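Bump. Still looking for Transcriptional regulator structure tokens.
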Amino acid sequence: MVLELKLRKIGNSVGLVLPKEALAKLGVDEGDSVLLTEANDDSLRISTAKPSVSEQLKVAQDLMQRYRNTLRELAK
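Sorry for the wait, here they are.
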């Protein structure tokens, strides 16, 4: 599925309006959360937000921040 979407001004921001086909494919509805992640080829990917993944990312970011010097030394 390839959909061409237009960027639209929404208040002071710019947003995308997803058509119902895209919402159905993602399995989301108005008010649901989605994740926007960068892929290896510098493209962006939209996927459904999974609370467990979001929580794991927060924990990983906290650990990386807390142990940044140790991780830097281990990376040498």
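The first helix runs from residue 20 to 26.

Edit: fixed formatting.
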